[in-house]
Amino acid sequence: MPRPIADPTTLHPVILPDGTPHEGTVFLAPAVRDHPKFKVGDYSYASAHTPPTDWAFRLAPYLYDFSPESLMIGRFCQIADGASFITSSANHRHDGFSSFPFMIFTGDGPNAPSMPAAGPDTVIGHDVWIGQGARIMPGAVIGHGVIVGAGAVVTGTIADYSIVGGNPSRVIKARFDDATIAALLDIAWWHWPIEVIIAHEAAIVGADIQALKRAAP
């Protein structure tokens, strides 16, 4: 019989041996549900050695309620302690002689000459592992199944099932061959009913592509 998993609306899904919730790990969707610019899929979680009172601010300190951009994170993502998203609202204008944000101190608002143009959304695919202390920069698009190494600074578009690391980040290698990646994207197990996912956990984490093809609902 498949083991149950916590409902994705549960804030603290990990229960310690003494029966208390582990406050340092949260399902991210309920943790940031009041932030209008965060869009997070079910079962994605974040962890912190010192749990913050405001998970949205800890993870994306420049993503404001009034920001024109959004931060979109897929299902089943894993975000380690210290990882952060530097979203487009952190930008200064940098196409002229000075990057100084005069409009902040003059109060001239969004039409001031020093106001940068609205930046793109930051998009994280499904089943992405973001390692300790990694920084995801404005407008990054990270594909499904990507692994981001600890301390990496990620910009641009990262192909599905890549491993990236370094500052600036570079693709270290693809996790699987092209045929396997294409099959995984077609199977898209992250959209299956959760009970089917749990029933086929061994195939998912054990890289049994034929078992996943047979299991697809």
CATH architecture of the largest domain: 3 Solenoid
* Overall shape: globular
Structural class: alpha/beta
Main beta-sheet strand count, sense and barrel state: 7 strands, mixed
Helix content: 10-25%
Written as H for each helix and E for each strand, in order along the chain, the element string is EHEEHEEEHEEEEEEEEEHHHH
Uncertain runs are none
Q: What is the count of β-strands?
A: 15
How much strand?
A: 15-25%
Compute the gyration radius: what is it?
Answer: 19 Å
Primary descriptors:
five-stranded parallel sheet, globular, alpha/beta
Detailed description of the structure:
- With 217 residues, this protein is α/β, with parallel strands linked by helices.
- It has two domains: 25-175, UDP N-Acetylglucosamine Acyltransferase, domain 1 (3 Solenoid); 177-217, no CATH class.
- Helix content is 19%, strand content 18%.
- It has seven helices and 15 strands.
- The protein has helices at 28-31, 55-59, 102-106, 178-187, 194-199, 201-205, 209-215; strands spanning 25-27, 38-40, 45-47, 71-73, 78-79, 84-85, 122-124, 129-130, 135-136, 141-142, 147-148, 153-154, 157-158, 162-165, 170-174.
- A seven-stranded mixed beta sheet has the order 1-3-5-8-11-14-15. The chain has a five-stranded parallel beta sheet with strand order 2-4-7-10-13, with no helix packed on it.
- It is globular, with a radius of gyration of 19 Å.
- It starts with 24 loop residues before the first strand and ends with a helix.
- The model has no long low-confidence stretch (mean pLDDT 95).
